[in-house]
Each structure stands twice: as C-alpha cells, then as structure tokens.
Specification:
It contains six helices and 18 strands. The chain is of the alpha+beta class. Strands 1, 2, 3, 4, 5, 6, 9, 17 and 18 form a nine-stranded mixed β-sheet that branches. Strands 13-10-11-12-14-7-16 form a seven-stranded mixed β-sheet, with no helix packed on it. Strands 8-15 form a two-stranded antiparallel ribbon. Strand 10 and strand 11 form a beta hairpin. The protein starts with a strand and ends in a 9-residue tail after the last strand.
C-alpha cells in the first residue's frame, strides 16, 4: 500500500475535521462518540496556537491521524512552550504499517524546527509501548487515582515542572470540557457522574477570581482525583487497580537537546485539568 503523508491545517471549514471525527468514531466504536464541535475547540481555538497534525491518506481516505496542541509549562522558573500529545489513531485495516511511527516522528521533527521545546503526553496501556519503543521518551510515572473528600490538595513542594495558565488559556480549557465546571473555595470541580465529582485542580483565590467560572457550593459527594505531585490535607484513598481505567502514563520528550532540566515524578505537579476535561 502507498500512503501519502499530509499536514492538515483545518482551514477548509469542517471538511477535514469531519474526516478526523469519522476515523475516531471507527476506532473507538462503542466506547466514545466524537463530534466536530469538540475537535474545533481543541484544535482551532487554543489561545496558544492551532493544532499541529500530520496524517496518512490511502487515496482520499484518512487512515491515520496524529495531533499535538501548543502547551505551556513552567519549567525551572520560566515559561516554556511545547506540545501536548492530543490524539493518535489508525484505522483497523491499516495497522502494522508503521504509520504511527512515521506521523509522530514527522511531527517531532517539525516541532523542533518551529522552536517548540518539548512533547508531553499521557499514554494509555495500548499506546505506551509504541512511544517507548520508537522514541527517546522519558517515562515520568503513572498518575495517581484517588477517591475522597475535601478540597485541600496542593503541591507537596516547590516543583520544577508545572503547567502554565493565564486567564485566556484556562478559560479555553474549561470550554473544551464535557461538563459544567464550578469553583468551590480554591478548587475547580466537575461532574464525573450523578454521584461523583471530578477534582480538576486547585488554584489561588486571586487567579480564580479573574476566571469566568461559577462559584458554587456542591452538595456532599465523593471526589475523583487524578494527578501527580500533590499533598493531601483531606482524606483521599487510592483506588484499587481492579476498578481503575487504563493506567495514565506520563511521557515527556525534550526537543532542546538537553537544555531542559530532567523531569521526574518528584519534580512534576500535574492535575486532571492539565490533560483531561472530563
């Protein structure tokens, strides 16, 4: 089979976005339903810039899609701009052809030339081995999954790596979500299901006061926490492995040829809103 690799800019209305949605719905049939509106928000409305996406076509058919979105982090006391690994899918009929490796490597080479400093991702059990096999990724660690009560979840120390937000980027992240988020004290909360809230993150009062988010006192519900590098002053218990979803594996690629400080699970503070908008 002969495949054509194309960078998509999604400037053709929703034509290209619809192809991505159709492919996602084939790959995740029965698990998720994807819509153009969600991809438009994530890919095109990010205040840090549009998506970078390389794709494989077989004739006119989109058969593999890889996408990263611009992403900002505080690294060693300064703001650094990199990319967050957003999507990688291959049509079931075209797997085993090396398309993921080709698209990801093309993306990383392009990103480095454009001056992006890193690739950050959260890989599930299916995609994680491929990243570690084909690329010099750092495996930072698995995110903790806990269930508990209370709102006091803070960095357990000063961290060399954390996600950078300004007002525009944070409000964009909230708009990308599948839930209506609200603030309670210094925490941002969402709705996981009718019985459980998502603990999205904790921020300063000054920052949250500048954000367009409802201030709401929730009724008593347990809260789902997913993250890394937190100190729990409230009661949160680890969720047993047998009831968890696929592991959340944090991976990182330095595009600066070693100019960035090493990243470890001890020096990263990472919250649910930093990678998911559940």
């Amino acid at each position: 089979m002969i495949y054509e690799i194309k960078q998509l800019f999604f400037d053709d209305g929703d034509v290209s976005l619809q192809k991505v949605v159709d492919l996602q719905n084939i790959v995740y049939e029965g698990k998720h339903t994807f819509r153009v509106e969600g991809f438009r928000k994530r890919y095109l409305e990010n205040p840090l810039g549009r998506v970078i996406s390389f794709n494989a076509f077989y004739g006119e058919e989109l058969v593999a899609h890889y996408a990263c979105i611009p992403y900002a982090m505080n690294i060693g006391g300064r703001k650094s701009i990199g990319l967050f690994d957003m999507a990688t899918v291959t049509h079931p009929d075209h797997r085993g052809k090396g398309l993921f490796k080709k698209l990801a490597q093309t993306t990383y080479d392009f990103a480095k030339k454009q001056g992006y400093e890193f690739i950050l991702g959260v890989a599930n059990a299916n995609s994680f081995p491929g990243y570690m096999k084909y690329f010099p990724m750092t495996f930072v660690g698995q995110l903790e999954v806990r269930m508990g009560l209370g709102l006091n979840i803070l960095p357990d120390a000063s961290k060399e790596y954390s996600v950078y937000y300004d007002k525009d980027v944070f409000e964009w992240r909230l708009r990308c979500g599948r839930a209506n988020y609200s603030r309670e004290k210094n925490a941002v909360l969402g709705k996981y299901n009718s019985m459980v809230q998502t603990y999205m993150g904790c921020y300063s009062d000054e920052f949250l006061s500048s954000i367009d988010i409802a201030n709401k006192h929730w009724c008593f519900r347990p809260r789902l926490y997913v993250g890394m590098g937190a100190k729990f002053k409230s009661l949160y218990l680890k969720v047993p492995k047998f009831i968890k979803r696929s592991p959340f594996n944090v991976i990182f690629l330095d595009l600066t040829d070693g100019q960035l400080p090493p990243i470890t699970k001890e020096n990263l503070f990472f919250q649910l809103i930093d990678f998911d908008v559940a």
